[in-house]
Design brief:
It is a single chain. This protein is mainly beta. A hairpin with a 6-residue loop joins strand 3 and strand 4. The strands form six sheets. The chain has a seven-stranded antiparallel sheet, covered by helices on one side.
Length: about 425
């Protein structure tokens, strides 16, 4: 089980033998363990991306006790609770849903955060993309009922376990321009569909985001990093100053609509393609954030506006009205900074929509290699490549799409010790 492990046994390794039937989906096939390297003791760049702030009582040593061995043998940060159960110290951030509740957790193993970013260094040393630590968020659902829509021979159904990890930073200026974010995706279904892949997925176009309260508006901000970031499917819906003035700052007697004015939806659309351009795997999960700790405001340093500051603002007689601000400010008697643990604007309320999962691999093996962006698909490894697992199956059924529900249940993560940046 994931947790704080003793120094002599800190890193959980996947079992060498997988017993058939471990996946609870009836009739499902056991899947090949994900690649894990021989531990080298070398630390990844990602392992040093967090250090405690003034409100955090855990040390970096406490934090690094939660580490996973990546396929390259390096140590990477992985999921941990917001409060260390051994010492009671607090980290001040959370990584989403505890993966130990997933029915495929023991098969998937601890997810190494930042592995695709590290592989990009090897694949293209002139292009780097290392994301902050707190943005890594895990979501999962067990026994999801998926339907095959559009099949010529009718509608079929499957039960699936899905686990996904996206780097979704909702506290800084990074996502205003940068569209490359690490995605880890695992799914196992009782009719045979199975995938495990890790990529830097391009979400929308670099240098811009889409206004969350008006999805027809693309807001151009500046140059992405890296500057040669590819464009991708999907989009990053992020609130900006326009959304705040339209929905949060209201006349006396009205209530602010925080759901419309401060909500993010990162809508991923990613494909692994064979060299001939045909689809190997296609997914489009949505990762939604409620009450993030930032919005885009070009008048502020780095273009970052803070919802907590809006709670104290008056503009032409209009102000923020509602419990989101009233609770945090004690009805106006408390003056809180944006990163105060008492603020509700910390990006800790999120939901996850699975949407479609298409696998077209009836004529190939289970092991494939891609570059860090999920391209250059090959049956053989190459410098900077990532090993991907795809079950040998074609679930498209003559052009059908396997669709999951918009799970959409808003969950609150981390408890009262979590604060921005988170």
């Amino acid at each position: 089980m994931t947790g704080r492990l003793k120094p002599s046994n800190r890193f959980r390794m996947l079992p060498l033998v997988i017993v058939a039937g471990l996946i609870s989906c009836e009739g499902g096939t056991p899947f090949t363990p994900l690649e894990r390297g021989v531990p080298t003791g070398e630390e990844s760049v990602a392992l040093a991306r967090w250090s405690p702030g003034p409100s955090d009582s855990c040390t970096q040593v406490d934090h690094n006790a939660y580490a996973a061995v990546g396929p390259d043998g390096k140590l990477y940060p992985t999921w941990h609770p917001a409060v260390d159960p051994a010492s009671g110290c607090t980290f001040g951030h959370e990584h989403g849903r505890d993966p130990r509740g997933s029915d495929i957790d023991l098969q998937v193993g601890d997810i190494p955060f930042g592995y695709a970013n590290e592989r990009l260094d090897a694949f293209d040393p002139l292009t780097t993309r290392h994301e902050d630590h707190v943005g890594h968020k895990i979501e999962w659902e067990n026994d999801v009922q998926m339907s095959f829509r559009g099949a010529a021979d009718g509608v079929f159904e499957a039960r699936c376990h899905v686990m996904a990890k996206l780097h979704q930073g909702s506290h800084s200026q990074d996502a205003f321009t940068n569209n490359l974010h690490e995605l880890v995706y695992h799914a196992r279904c009782d009719e045979g569909t199975g995938v495990s892949f890790t990529v830097l997925t391009p979400i929308g176009a670099p240098g811009e985001f889409v206004r969350s309260c008006d999805s027809g508006v693309h807001v151009n901000v500046g140059t992405a990093s890296p500057a040669n970031s590819p464009s991708g499917g999907g989009k990053r819906l992020i609130p900006d100053r326009f959304c705040v003035e339209q929905h949060i700052l209201v006349p006396d007697g009205e209530r602010s609509n925080f759901s419309a004015g401060l909500r993010e939806s990162w809508q991923v659309s990613h494909r692994l393609r064979r060299p001939d351009g045909s689809t190997l795997v296609s997914v489009n999960p949505y990762f939604n954030v409620f009450r993030p700790s930032r919005f885009h405001d070009p008048s502020q340093p780095n273009g970052v506006g803070r919802p907590m500051d809006v709670c104290y603002e008056t503009l032409d007689g209009r102000s923020a009205q509602g419990s989101d601000c009233e609770d945090a400010t004690g009805g106006g008697s408390l003056l809180l900074d944006w990163d105060d643990p008492r603020s509700g604007f910390r990006g800790a309320h999120r939901s996850f929509d699975i949407n479609s999962l298409v696998v077209q691999n009836d004529d190939g093996g289970e092991t494939w290699y891609t570059d860090p962006f999920g391209g250059s698909v090959s049956r053989q490894p190459f410098p900077g490549s990532i090993r991907q697992y795809v079950e040998q199956i074609d679930n498209s059924r003559g052009g059908a799409t396997m669709n999951g529900p918009a799970v959409g249940r808003e969950r609150a993560y981390g408890g009262g010790t979590v604060h921005a940046p988170n």
